[in-house]
Amino acid sequence: MAEHDPQTVKVVVVGHAQHGKSTLIGRMLAETGGLAEGRIEAVRAMCGRRGMPFEWAFLLDALQAEREQGLSIDTTQTRLCTERRALVIIDTPGHREFVRNMITGAAPADAALLVVDVTEGMQEQTRRHAYLVHLLGIRQVAVAVNKMDLADFSFTAFADVAADARACLAELGILPTHIVPLSAQTGDNVARRGAAGGAMDWYEGMTLVQALDQLAPAPRPTDLPLRLPIQDIYKFDQRRIIAGRIESGRLRVGDTVLLSPSNKTARVSSIEAWGAAQPVLAAATGQSIGITLDEQIFVERGEVISHLEAAPVLSTVFRARLFWLGRRPLAAGDRYKARLNTAELQLQVQEVETVIDVADLSARSDGVVERNGVAEVVLRARSTVVLDPFTANPATGRVVLLDDDDIVGGGIINMRGYPDQRHALTVKSTNITSVDHRVGQESRSLVNGHKSGILWLTGLSGAGKTTLALELEQRLFRKGYQVFVLDGDNIRHGLSADLGFSPDDRAENIRRVGEVAALFARAGMLVITAFISPYRSDRDRVRAIAPDLFHEIYVRADLATCEARDPKGLYKKARRGEIPDFTGISAPYEPPGSPELVVDTGSQDVAQSLAVLLDYVETNLAIKAKAPRAGRERR
Question: Fewer CB in a 10 Å sphere around the end CB: N or C, the chain?
Answer without folding.
Answer: N
